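Help! Submission page says 'invalid entity' but I think these are all valid:
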Amino acid sequence: MNAAVSSRRDARRNHEKLLVEARKLFAERGVEAPLDELAVRAGVGAGTVYRHFPNRDALVRELYDLGVGELRDLAPEILAAETGWRSVELYLERLAEWLANAPYVPAVMRRMGEIDPDYRPGAEFAEPIDGLVERAQAEGSLRPDVTAVDLAVLVDMLGSLGQYGGTYLPYWRRQLAIVLDGLRARPDLTPLPGAGLDFDTFHDMSHRKGPRPAPGA
Amino acid sequence: MNAAVSSRRDARRNHEKLLVEARKLFAERGVEAPLDELAVRAGVGAGTVYRHFPNRDALVRELYDLGVGELRDLAPEILAAETGWRSVELYLERLAEWLANAPYVPAVMRRMGEIDPDYRPGAEFAEPIDGLVERAQAEGSLRPDVTAVDLAVLVDMLGSLGQYGGTYLPYWRRQLAIVLDGLRARPDLTPLPGAGLDFDTFHDMSHRKGPRPAPGA
DNA sequence: TATGATTCGGAGGGTCATCTCCGAATCACC
DNA sequence: GGTGATTCGGAGATGACCCTCCGAATCATA
């Protein structure tokens, strides 16, 4: 899966520098940003960029894989929380914080969908999230009509606040708190509209490119 | 402000067709999509594109202005609701629905920020939204610690669900319902963290490009 | 330090998008 | 229908970007 790491120090340093600058560049200008610009920012020649990443997609793929790795590192703490509700809190907080601090991710994800139509963003996380939701609902703290997909979508929503730039970061916790209050189980709640989705149908749905249904349906 | 509308029918028809196709094209491929492709999709020659829009930015600007106009048309119904709470509901629902159905908007907004650093997205709407929040809080239905900016940010979050494509649209009402439940005033709520912002400081904040503060602060 | 292997830098060919230009076509008006 | 003004279409000049290539520089190893 991973290309071998070079034994030369300059090669390792350049590879790392290119990844760092690519994240910044893709965040600012999208994944279509000129790679010549990447070379300039990283302080290397254009040829060096293409030695490390044969083409743009290879670079995107590596950023994606590294991101999935970072997420995997977040999982243990979230799943080991004392209560199910605390797990839900941590899930939303940690994931959204990670997303908001990694503004290159949406661009990379979009491109990944074009490169490889049947990649599954974070497929390995579907099962633990399902478990987390069941646990919190079993203890009666999480409203019973939400699904794991609903939570994942909420994470995306919160993460989209990264678009405002780093200065807003301390404030998105307000939106997080509002969402969490909306997720608590309460006796007088009216149930959520529509049917809950599972990850499979959600994936099919969000990758279909067909015409949108009539508005107001 | 607006360029004069041509008196020739073919010119008006082409102008309209170009706007329609530009919205689709920008939604699919971003504002950097080739304008030659726009010409093909609209069934006109490349020269015609540049007759109507001297450059890409002129096209972006017109799409932005038209969007603001559509929002203005939404305002009366939202503000005329019977109760303050219903006004809040309509505000979130109508705006987020509009955003989710207009997937070209985020791309256009981002580009607008680059073209014209001190444009104010929807500045004219700040005052009515403030009024709407005060009304709902006065009647005791909206939690007292949210601000108009919080609501506007929530709209952006909900609108970002347009990224999943039209097929998901019937389902974002679930996230809307969760957010609304989190916004209701309740006796036992813990107050939102951090300070509420007004539109002016929020605008400064979200357009500053400086380095992000240390995470975890 | 010497040596061979690996990596670097950046000039340049090929490709694609932008935008101009002007003869041909279309339109509004009479 | 005739007429002048406006708009259309698409070929082509200009410029940007992608990616390759190879002599020069750097590195690991002994």
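Support: the input was valid. A stray whitespace character was the problem, and the output above is from the cleaned input. Chain B has ten helices and no strands.
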